[in-house]
Amino acid sequence: MKKIDYQLQPATEEDLERIQKEKLESILEYAQDLDQKEKEKIEKYVKETLPKQIPNYQIITTSHKKIGCLLVEPKEDAALLDEIYLEKEYRGKNIGTTIIQNLIESYPKIILWVYKENVRALKLYHKLGFQVEEETQTRYLMSRSKNDNKKESSH
Q1: Which CATH architecture has domain 7-145?
Q2: Does 57 score more than 50 pLDDT?
Q3: pTM of the model
Q4: What are φ and ψ of residue 127, in 5° steps?
Q5: SS3 string of 73-111?
Q6: Is residue 109 within 8 Å of 144, Cβ to Cβ?
């Protein structure tokens, strides 16, 4: 597999609309059986909270093309990987894996929520040594500590 070089750049106000669109698409893809009222509530939440989060977002770029985004929120003793999004044609090319591996090395612990329906992401997180800590009807809370002795599967 050809390695794709990528960069992370701080998001700007210009990126806000694109990030909102990507976040909504991602949520609605995996949040099953939502009625119109719930969808509207989610849209309102995204439109209200995302502008406040923009300083924490990073844009994933390659060859000066924006291909995704990343939201990591540092917590007291961990970092919340709140969002990682890559355009479809850039998935499966080791970009997300490399970003997450770098996060594992940078923070004592990484936590994240993932939809149970997102089988691809679940497979990746398990491969990287994440464990399920909690479960809701639709999602898992997973974590991975920097010093976990769990071996990552080789690529």
Answers
A1: 3-Layer(aba) Sandwich (3.40)
A2: yes
A3: 0.84
A4: -60, -35
A5: EECCCCEEEEEEEECHHHCCCCHHHHHHHHHHHHCCEEE
A6: yes
